[in-house]
């Protein structure tokens, strides 16, 4: 169910407020372009600066507009287990197909603490995908810990943003081939699938949904020559979008395509002129402009 290109959707703003009309149109465009599912209100959705009410509203809007055509994995992470459980409950109530739960940041829990946190989230009854991103959370879930959690029938997979491709094979060995492994890093997504992954929760797919979906389809069909040709088109865009925080780059790219403003909430700020030029050039290279 959770395979291919799954955009980590931006949350459009207009004059400081949610722009749900732009968000709904973005979801429709993404489906038309071939995206295989959505992850609203993750890092790229600016979840740290959304109110709880806004967070729930965006998830509900995504589920409503997707209308079962593609799955929705709702961002539902927090460094508080109690708040994480509430977010997973809200995602379940909204009709999301799964919840993406990040390893708790700032607290720096032990591996035992991670197990307790994710088992509490799993008790809600909605499928849970672990989001392991040590550069942001400062804690790394070890493969052995993931194997323990994989025994829980409600903990079904991982979004791996470690950029360590050996983790894919190790996790496959410890958790089994049915444990869903999704890349959380666009530049290494082709290699991730070659090692046994099934897809990518992608930032670049906000701006280049068709190319990212085609690249993922090629890898899953074993056509790596085609996948590499598509990645050659995309790699400058992957790099340009992350020259500054990725959400800023994705929103700027979408603004050039007319899908939303490039407005972000502080402490994020508008891109510098040099990064804007890089993104424009990369989009031209990919044939998007």
Rg calc:
18 Å
Order of helices and strands: EEEHHEHEHEHHEHEHEHHHH
CATH superfamily: Aldolase class I
> How far is it from the N-terminal to the C-terminal residue, by CA?
32 Å
CATH architecture: Alpha-Beta Barrel
The beta-strand count equals 9
Structural class: alpha/beta
Helix content: 40-55%
What is CATH's topology name?
TIM Barrel
Describe the sheet with the most strands: 7 strands, parallel
The number of helices is: 12
Low-confidence stretches: none
Count up the domains: 1
Average of the residue pLDDT scores: 97
Beta strand %:
5-15%
Describe the protein's architecture and organization.
By secondary structure, the chain is α/β, with parallel strands linked by helices. The chain has one domain: TIM Barrel, CATH 3.20.20. Helix content is 47%, strand content 12%. It contains twelve helices and nine strands. It has helices spanning 20-33, 52-66, 81-94, 111-122, 134-137, 143-150, 166-175, 189-194, 209-220, 224-241, 246-256, 273-285, and strands at 4-7, 13-14, 17-18, 73-75, 98-102, 128-132, 155-160, 180-183, 199-202. It has a seven-stranded parallel β-sheet. Strands 2-3 form a two-stranded antiparallel sheet. The longest helix is centred in the C-terminal third of the chain and has 18 residues, at 224-241. The two termini are 32 Å apart. The mean pLDDT is 97.
Question: Which helices and strands, and how do they pair?
Answer:
Blueprint: E1 4-7, E2 13-14, E3 17-18, H1 20-33, H2 52-66, E4 73-75, H3 81-94, E5 98-102, H4 111-122, E6 128-132, H5 134-137, H6 143-150, E7 155-160, H7 166-175, E8 180-183, H8 189-194, E9 199-202, H9 209-220, H10 224-241, H11 246-256, H12 273-285
Parallel strand pairs: 1-9, 4-5, 5-6, 6-7, 7-8, 8-9
Antiparallel strand pairs: 2-3
Helix pairs in contact: 1-2, 2-3, 3-4, 4-6, 6-7, 9-10, 10-12, 11-12
């Amino acid at each position: 169910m959770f395979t291919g290109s799954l955009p980590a959707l931006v949350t459009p703003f207009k004059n400081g407020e949610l722009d749900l009309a732009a968000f709904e149109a973005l979801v429709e465009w993404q489906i038309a372009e071939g995206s295989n599912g959505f992850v609203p209100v993750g890092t790229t959705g600016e979840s740290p600066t959304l109110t709880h009410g806004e967070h729930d509203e965006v998830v509900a809007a995504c589920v409503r507009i997707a209308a079962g055509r593609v799955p929705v994995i709702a961002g539902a992470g927090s460094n508080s287990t109690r708040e994480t459980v509430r977010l997973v409950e809200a995602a379940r109530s909204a009709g999301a197909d799964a919840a993406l739960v990040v390893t708790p940041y700032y607290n720096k829990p032990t591996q035992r603490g991670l197990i307790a946190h994710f088992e509490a989230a799993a008790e809600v009854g909605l499928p849970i995908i672990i989001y392991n991103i040590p550069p942001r959370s400062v804690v790394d879930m070890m493969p052995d810990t993931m194997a323990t959690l994989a025994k829980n029938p409600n903990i079904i997979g991982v979004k791996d943003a470690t950029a360590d491709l050996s983790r894919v094979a190790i996790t496959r060995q410890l958790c089994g081939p049915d444990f869903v492994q999704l890349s959380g890093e666009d530049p290494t997504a082709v290699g991730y699938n070659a090692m046994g992954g099934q897809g990518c929760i992608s930032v670049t797919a906000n701006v280049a949904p068709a190319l990212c979906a085609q690249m993922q389809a090629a890898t899953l069909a074993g056509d790596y020559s085609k996948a590499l040709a598509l990645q050659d088109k995309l790699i400058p865009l992957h790099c340009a979008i992350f020259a500054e925080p990725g959400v800023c780059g994705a929103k700027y790219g979408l603004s050039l395509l007319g899908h939303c403003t490039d407005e972000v909430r502080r402490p994020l700020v508008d891109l510098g002129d040099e990064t804007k030029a890089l993104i424009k050039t990369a989009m031209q290279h990919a044939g998007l402009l």
